[in-house]
Amino acid sequence: MRLSRTTKYILLAALVLGLAVIYFPLLVVLLNSFNADTTFGWPPSSFTLEWWGRAAENEGALNALGTSVQAGLAATAIALVLGTMAAFALQKYRFFGRNQVSLLIILPIALPGIVTGIALNNAFRTILGIDLGLFTAIVAHATFCIVVVFNNVVARLRRMGGNLEEASMDLGADGLTTFRLVTFPMLRSALLAGGLLAFALSFDEIIVTTFTLGTGLETLPIWILNNLFRPNQAPIVNVVAAVLILASTVPVYLAQRLSGDTTSGGRL
Question: Where is the chain membrane-spanning (predicted)?
C-alpha cells in the first residue's frame, strides 16, 4: 500500500506526539533527579549529584530495593518453572478443556490489580490462615509472572514445531536427552526473555503488593508512594524513580531483543 506524502506526515506527527506524551514525563523525572533546586523549578538552573548520594545512603530506600529484588527473583523463579511446565502441557498434548485451561492461565494478568490483590489477601488471611509477609507477596507476584513466561514459551514452541525432537528420538535419544540437547537450547532465549519480563513486572508492581505484603515491609514502588508527598524526601524520590525507570527499561529491552531472535533457533 502506497501512502501519500500528507498521510505520512500525519502518521509521523501522531507517532511523535504519542511518544512525547509517554516519555516526556519520564524525562522530567530523570532531569529532576539532578536538579539542584529542591522546588524543582523548570527549567533547572543547575545540576547536582547530591540527591544521588543521599539516595545511596537512604536506609529506607535500600531496604525497599532489597525487598523488591528478593520478591522479583523468587517470583521469576516460580514463574519460569510453572509457566514452562504449563506451556509444554498445553502445546504438546491435546485434551478436553485445553483452551479453557489456557484461558485460566492467562486470565490473572488481565484482571484488575485491585481485584487480584483483595482476592489473594482474603485467601491468605481468611482461608489459609497465613500471615502476610514477603512470602505472600512472592506468591501473588508469581500468579501474573507465570503468564509472561507461559506466553513466551508457547510462542517459541509453536515456531519450533516437533520435527527436530522427533528426529532426535528416532536416532535413539530418550526424552530427557532430547530435552537437554535439542529442546532446551532452542528455548533458552525465550526462557530468558520471559524471565526478564517477569522480573520487570514484579519489580514495578504496586497494587497487588499493597494487599499482600506484610506490615513493616516495603518494595521500591511502595516506598516511592509513601514518600512522594514528603517535601524533605522529594529529591530522593526522584532519584529512586529514575533508578526504577532504568531498572525496568533494561530487562524489557533485553527481552524484546531475545524474543525477536528467530533465526538462530533461540541460541544466545
Answer: 9-34, 69-89, 101-120, 132-154, 190-214, 234-254
> What's the domain count of the chain?
1
Cell of 121: 489477601
The counts of H helices and E strands in the chain are: 12, 0
For residue 7, is it within any domain? no
Grid coordinates in use for 13?
506527527
Helix (H, G, I), strand (E, B) or coil at 171: coil
Where helices occur in 171-233 by DSSP H, the ranges are: 175-178, 184-204, 207-212, 220-227
Inter-CA distances, 208 with 9, 68, 124, 219, Å = 42, 13, 13, 12
pTM for this predicted structure: 0.80
pLDDT per position as a tens digit, 6-42: 888 899 999 999 999 988 888 888 888 888 777 666 7
Question: What CATH number is given to the structural domain containing 155?
Answer: 1.10.3720.10
Residue 202 lies in a domain: yes
3-state secondary structure (DSSP) of residue 1? coil
Determine the structural domain holding residue 117 and report its residue range.
60-260
